[in-house]
Amino acid sequence: MKFGPKSTVMAILTAAALALTACGGGGTSTNGGAATTTLTIGLLQDLVSFEPADAHIGHTMPYYQAVYDTLILRAPDGELKPMIAESWEYNAENTVLTLKLRTDVTFNDGAKLDATAVKANLDHFKKAKGRDAYQVASLESVAVVDPATVAVTLSEPDPAFTYYLSLAAGLMGSPAALGTTGIKTVPAGSGPYELDTTNTVKGSQYVFTKRANYWNKDLQKFDKVTMKFLQDVTARTNAIVSGQVDATLLDPKTSKQAVAAGLTLTTSQVDWQGLLLMDRDGKVTPELANPKVRQAMNYAFDRKTILEQQYLGEGTPTNQVFGPESGAYVDELDGSYPYDPAKAKALLAEAGYPNGFELKIPTMTGFEAITATVQQQLGDIGIKVQLETIPAANYVPDLAAAKYSAAVFNLYQAEPWVAINQMISTSALYNPFKSTTPELATMIDAVQNGGEQSAEKAKDVNKYVTDNAWFVPFFRLNQMYLTNKKITVEPQLQQAIPSIYNYAPAK
Amino acid sequence: MVTFILRKLAAGVVVLAAISFLTYFLLYFSSANIARNILGEFASQEQVAAKEIELGLDQALLPRFFAWAGHALTGDLGTSWFTSEPVARALMTRLPVTLTVVIVSIIFIAIIATALGMAAAVKRGWIDKAVQSAAVIGDAIPSFVMAIILVTVFAIQLKLFPATSSISPDSGSAAWIASLALPVLAIVINGVTSAAQQIRSAVIKQLEKDYVRTLRSRGISEREILFKHVLRSAAPAGLTVLSLQFIGMLGGVVIIEQIFALPGMGALAVQSTTMGDIPLVMGVVLYTVVIVIIVNLLVDLINGWLNPKVRVS
Asked: Where is the Solute-binding protein family domain (chain A) (predicted)?
């Protein structure tokens, strides 16, 4: 037999047709007019387990919010509102928090969500030492006052405790299931949705269906919620542009593509990016002990241009590490360190280092561009930066182990007390050299014991760390959240991805 | 024949043991921060130390390896350090996805490459030139670039296929096929041309041999010569290429799985390796090596069946 051109072409066509047959299943269904009853979200991180003690603030919270209620609800603007707790109140010393509970809430296994269940959850969360166990670090004991009242005793005032009760520490699981292996894959909660185990594929998609007789219909706006784990930004872009998901987080570049395809962009600011100047006592890099050196480094960066070039301008240059909505933000601090290399050089000379010095900073996948910029900008004022590439998994542990005097990082702009414990107090992970001064310690004390005034008092801490140049903040980065026309979403303060309560069908 | 298989299997066991140890050895040196990464940034040093003892990370390399190997020999691959999911179960949910993609791709590549390669070798002329230039282009365009082009055209513009995986147990075979069509197509386009090229050279080589001339002189039809003799003699070369492609695909499918968000072995391997989830990484390596050994054994057997000379040597 001879292969003529015709038969060859036919063979190719047949093969291609084979590959293409039965492919009608794809595509998306559009619903004409009527409001949608389903919501599909594309998430960046996979769920580790449904055990509440394994919950972690950030990209995995939606999985938990679907199936668990929290004691307190955090509104999109950050205000704490009643949820399972109808009201709460501190004693005069801010050490005992009394919570009054709803009495009409049950778990999906039939158990009642009462004071005993709340105690079981908080005790378990503390004992299990999960990723967010720091949230209950100050928790000393929980007492059941009556079936609808619990009294939580703290070892010391914790201005962020009620905030934590709206996050991982506040997730309420059925006491009988807590700590079992079963709850890791099948949640047992009182939340607005239940896991549809037959349609859920671990590592790919999680399907939730509306729970019958849920106590708060306002928080249950869809019949079905699907969360797809889409790690890759290209996959997320393709998924939202093709209509497979209704909402997802992209980056400045891909969001341009999505907006061009007719999707709605909502931006919010969560992280600040910049240099942490951690060795403020000069233990490893003696030069960093001098505030003038640290200030000089702040004058060395042309923040606006860097933002334009690396993030397409999606963000706001800043000189402070507290966010505008945190309550500790001080407007005029943002004029502290304009781009002024001449002044930076003068300050270095004043500090006794006219020829600069050497500084080693780490870099990792994803940080190459920004660390190269740091190297170049600090090089311009005479500081020779040596970059050391380390695996991403080692980055945080190495910072925490005080292996570097300074490092580039993105930190989220949290509530003042959370932020202080994240990077400023002596127990903060991102203060590995444990730098402090008596003056600053007094200010931190004032925040801790400030009660209602806590955020206001944190302004002093903000001024102190900005004036003394503890950090070189570059900018607050925009989070690019995309949604299609079927749904609406309200961004959640200090969260890159909104809480699930913030989504609603488009009218 | 039986001794041949037994010998191959024995060699496979040795390879398996060696690779397991080597992997464990390499992971041992990057296991410094695992406990910290499991517990999160806010855990205290004491908690981290306690976790390290719990996971056995405080022990030396050999005791750790033999403890793992001992369990693995009894079929217990342990549980993931990060998700507490049993390793065997995690692999069993992922493996079918990856194997489906790879096997379906390799079948398409085999059929299309053989047809193209033979056509090019027999016909020469324009089709030969086309196959040769396509081979260069196919090699030059990585499968992930092809994947992105395919998604843009077929999923986003034409809306014929889902852009990312929509596989779930209830979705049925239509959804499976729809989800796998683009990933498979991307791999096939990338792999088929180089395989066709190899088959083409193998067939040409056979066609130039004396026995072909002898057969022709005896008046045996071209068709019979081609399918009964030439193809059979050229097959080992083609099989080798395909088996190498198959093994390469097991690793290369990682990026394809990412782009299409397919819940396969690739994503699992990348995630577990970057996090330092040693039991899971070991499970992935073990399964992959077993697959490679089986594929090699099958190729050897098919070669033997096609060509008795191979069996003797």
From this structure: 79-414
